[in-house]
Design goal:
Number of helices: 10
Protein name: ABC transporter related-protein
CATH class of one domain: Alpha Beta
Strand content: 15-25%
Organism: Fimbriimonas ginsengisoli Gsoil 348
InterPro entries: AAA+_ATPase, ABC_SmlMolc_Importer, ABC_transporter-like_ATP-bd, P-loop_NTPase
Oligomer: single chain
Order of helices and strands: EEEHEEHEHHHEHEHEEHHH
Keywords: ATP-binding, Nucleotide-binding, Transport
CATH architecture of one domain: 3-Layer(aba) Sandwich
Number of strands: 10
Bound molecules: adenosine-5'-triphosphate
Structural class: alpha/beta
Shape: globular
Largest sheet: 6 strands, mixed
Radius of gyration: 18 Å
Distance between the termini: 34 Å
CATH superfamily of one domain: P-loop containing nucleotide triphosphate hydrolases
Helix content: 25-40%
GO molecular function: ATP binding; ATP hydrolysis activity
Amino acid sequence: MSKRYGVAEALKETSLEIPSGQVTALIGPSGCGKSTLLRLILGLIVPSSGQVSIDDQVVTPATVQEIRRKVGYVIQDGGLFPHLTARENITLMGRHLSRPVDIPALARLVRFPEDGLDRYPLELSGGQRQRVGLMRALALDPQTLLLDEPLGALDPLVRSGLQTDLREIFRELRKTVVFVTHDMGEAAYLADRIVLLRDGEIVQEGTLEDFQKHPATPFVTEFLNAQRALVAL
Ligand SMILES: Nc1ncnc2c1ncn2[C@@H]1O[C@H](COP(=O)(O)OP(=O)(O)OP(=O)(O)O)[C@@H](O)[C@H]1O
């Protein structure tokens, strides 16, 4: 598939298979098409050519609502409704679909304090907001989880704590996870498989070790070197 916005080609003709039950990281320089790829998977935008299938079901305007119920999604800034409390944000879809949401279990899973559940997003810290976004995405127990920079604008200590928690959550839940990051250390720590993009194209797919030992192009090495400190994990 591919995606263009007007004349700009955000994603060139690309074919990507996401293994189920595994964690995949999409990484690459700013503007390379990571978020575009994630939005295409979710059906938030329509490909200019080709198609997306989830569990053999093609994402179309007719199927997108049904598919989205099987997919949890955390957008770049968390995307919480500011006029709803954490609890109301988390249960919104469940109420809409008359499905129960086990809030105490979710709060334990993401280590969110129960007394924060009745606060509004503005009354929570950045890290807590990310945890609420994650609880909301997990509320209906989706098979697939898509996260657009889930640890974006967080200070390094909070980020590192959340990385540890996310890794445990991913291992525990064994869902199909696709997340976007700028950070190779984070990708290597959290993901089974890394997909490196550049200028709307996939440059290489594999593990950090594959990238280090068998770089597909000089750009792979250049990208790794630019993140040297983090890759020395
Ligand atoms: N709605 C839009 N209209 C026009 N161009 C867009 C739109 N959304 C994204 N683009 C362009 O498409 C390209 C890919 O954008 P995308 O958001 O997928 O990149 P990204 O890799 O997620 O970047 P970042 O890491 O900075 O978030 C960029 O050149 C961007 O400017």
